[in-house]
Amino acid sequence: MHVPADGSDPGSARRVSVLVYASDPATRARVIQALGEQPAPGVALEVVEAAAGGEAIALLDAGDVDLAVLDGEAAPTGGMGLARQIKDEIDNPPPVLLLVARRDDAWLATWSRAEAVVPHPIDAVTLAEAVVSLLDRTPGVAVAPH
What we know:
Layout: E1 14-21, H1 25-35, E2 43-50, H2 53-61, E3 67-71, H3 79-89, E4 96-100, H4 108-112, E5 116-119, H5 124-136
Parallel strand pairs: 1-2, 1-3, 3-4, 4-5
Helix pairs in contact: 1-5
């Protein structure tokens, strides 16, 4: 069995489902690549993708998503509006991380009720840290030992 350099056992990692929503397939691919399969010791990601707002809502409504990463630049349904819809319409919604093109758009996260904002272009370290931080604050999903 292969053991990573950090000594963690990939078989014992907590599996977490992350929805990646973006209308642009290249954006979805960049997010998935930036996060990798194991963004932190003890957490392994299962990524589900959505290219349309309705598809994302259906996946979230099924209740098997621990975190949603939404592209604020998606069209025709933008991630900011979708984040607000998720918070209004989904029972026990997961935390939402918004990707925004302009730092000045970060204030809209307050309106959308997103728990975190990360700017485009996607920086792998920043994105992974934000995802792990959100997961660690989610009851029943915490990834970091305390």
